[in-house]
Structures are given as C-alpha cells and as structure tokens.
C-alpha cells in the first residue's frame, strides 16, 4: 500500500540549498510584520501629535468620537468605560499602539505585541467600526485577523526574539559540551 506522506527527514534549510519558494515560505510573514509595525507606530504618533484628538470634547476629539459611536457599538459598556476619562483612554490607546508597533517591528516579545495589536483592533472593531455596513467597510476587523498569524508564529527571523533564542541555544550547547 502506498501512502501520500513523505517519509524522508531531509530538511532543506540544513544544507543551505534554498530555492525561491523556500525563502518565500521562510519570510512570508515579514512583510505583514513590517506593515503592521509601521502602521501602528504611525497611528500612535498621529494621535499623540494631533492637538484636537487628545481632548474631552471638540471637533476631532476622542471624547466626541466615543460619544458618537456609543449607541451603535457592539459593546456600549466598553465605550462608557472610555468615556469616564476620554483623554486617558486616548493616551492609553496611543501608547498601546506605539508599544505594539515597536515590539512588532523589532520582533521583541513579538507574540505578546501581536496579541496586543489584535486586542486593540478587536476593541476598535467592537466600538468604532462596528456600525460599518457592510461589515467589510470597517478596517479594524481585517487588522485584527492580520495579527493572528503573528500571534501564532511570532517573529522567528530578523528579530530580537530570534537573536535571544539563538544566544540561549548557544549557551545550552556550550554547557552540554563541557
């Protein structure tokens, strides 16, 4: 009987033989990581440098935006919590986006950063863009799902996490040879 499974244990990365498909597979999440990292840093800096955003009320303020979406959001109680202190909430979102963006770009605590990005995107989808009709007009839902592969895979290449992992592995092997 023949099986459709490969039984060899050849790893294409061990002998240095890379074709373009191997490299594409290996670095497939890198463009997503760069895009999300840069976008979240940009979103953060945009909020922090916008004099009208970080105010309780007024045109373009976080307070007025949250009041406008309160009745159409999926979780009004989340909006109510934000409305207790809209300026602090605005700073929290902005600094959260900055931390997520930097962590994602550098690949530092990459899975945790991606989880933070997914949670920020989820909270924005459930509040700000929930009323988008049809649902795919709201951009927060696709952002949330873009974070999922990075939550699962982390940043295995070109990252601080990979550098730390490589150094730890080196120490463990050196100790084993003594």
Describe what this molecule looks like in 3D.
- With 178 residues, this protein is mostly helical.
- Helices cover 65% and strands 0% of the residues.
- The chain has eight helices and no strands.
- Helix 6 (110-127) runs antiparallel to helix 7.
- The longest helix has 21 residues, at 86-106.
- It is elongated and about 55 Å long.
- 23% of the residues are buried.
- The mean pLDDT is 88.
Radius of gyration: 21 Å
Q: Look at the helices and sheets and give the structural class.
A: mainly alpha
Shape: elongated
Mean pLDDT: 88
Biggest sheet record? none
Provide the succession of SSEs.
HHHHHHHH
Level of helix content? 55-70%
Short recap of the structure:
This protein is an all-alpha fold.
Key phrases:
elongated, 8 helices, 178 residues, single chain, mainly alpha
Strand and helix layout:
Elements: H1 20-26, H2 30-49, H3 62-69, H4 76-84, H5 86-106, H6 110-127, H7 140-153, H8 160-177
Helix pairs in contact: 2-5, 3-4, 5-6, 6-7
